[in-house]
Amino acid sequence: MTDPLVTTYRAREAQYAALRDAALAHTTRLIEEAGLKVHNITGRLKRPESLADKLRRKPGRYRSLEDVTDLVAVRVITYFESDVAAVSRLLEAHHEVNWEHSVDKSMMHDPDRFGYMGVHYVVRVPPGLEQVMPPATGAAPPMPDLIPAGQHYEVQIRSILQHAWAEIEHDLGYKNREAVPREVQRRFYRLAGLLEMADEEFMALDRLSRDYAATLPERVRTEPDSVFIDAQSIGHLLEVSPVRDLDEAVADALGVPLLTRWPDPERPQRLATLLHYVGVHSVGGLLGELRRNRRDILDFAVRLLPRLPQAWLPAGGARPGTGLVNHALLRACANPSLSPQEIINALDMSGILSTRQMVDTVLETYAEVAGETELDPRHS
């Protein structure tokens, strides 16, 4: 016999689906406007079969659908455990939280606590709240989220690793400690500890990365020899002298603009790769070489680039790091054990011209600049 609440729920399922969509849009907007970076945000609607199972397991507890707090749920998956707290504070600030049915599982984390979950809130949006929230700077006025007045829904907040634990735990059918065979419990505890340690280590790595980026400009200025060539340091160097000055000089000599806003997030890593290939590993070493060899690099670039217009002219100008590319090509040409082809491969220029044709043009230009008359054995 079908429970009357299940029958009522089926009849109203479209309304609950609309609530799910509105709650998802509302939560997504809140997080985006707060500038929080999360892995994903999804919405869920409870299946009638799941509701029926819940009513059978807890007879007499639910008198109406309003008593069932998880018919509609929004799930926020963060990258780090620390972000769970940030999202939680945001939701508390913009919702009425039903604390009787909400729980922060991390606060229940006893030493032998089984499970590794996040925060579950049952919330409702205060009427008119979305109308008074200020829009982000430069953004259009916020649109109403159209959540029906008084409707509540569940919001689950977990880190990626917390989510992995919960999903695997659910799939194995172990929802509490008593359900786990004794011989299996020890392995579960060890795994929970490893995941918690992994979450903490990921947070530490995130802090180290942000600290590295924050101190990078000062370290480049005061102790460049201690700064390693990597994507972040190259990204910074592209904005400052002497790298930016050299790029501007190349662009001016060619009569083209320097594309300072060139949309290629992978370019700093490619430039770092080719510099490592030619033996440049520190920012201090690179800056010294650029200052000593500026005239040669500029001369080589002005001779080479007009001979390979297909490689750069379609972009409409000189890309950031053009000086670094030509410096690396010069070093590769001057060292018989290196190959300009590796520089071209690092820049992912396949399909523009044949790699062999570009290598030959680079070697011919170097021979002209260096005054060499013998054919380079690397030439085809």
N-to-C SSE string, H for helix and E for strand = HHEHEHEEEHEHHHHHHHHHHH
Strand content: 5-15%
Shape: elongated
Q: Main beta sheet: strand number and arrangement?
A: 6 strands, mixed
Query: Could you name the CATH class of the largest domain?
Result: Alpha Beta
Indicate the structural class. alpha+beta
Q: In total, how many beta strands?
A: 6
Mean pLDDT: 86
Helical content band: 40-55%
Number of helices: 16
This entry's quaternary arrangement is single chain
The fourth-level CATH homologous superfamily of the largest domain is: Beta Polymerase, domain 2
Name the CATH architecture of the largest domain.
2-Layer Sandwich
The CATH topology of the largest domain: Beta Polymerase, domain 2
Q: Taking Cα atoms only, what radius of gyration do you get, to the nearest Å?
A: 30 Å
Total tally of structural domains: 2
Tell me the span between the first and last alpha carbons: 83 Å
**Unreliable stretches covering 5 or more consecutive residues:** 130-137, 139-144
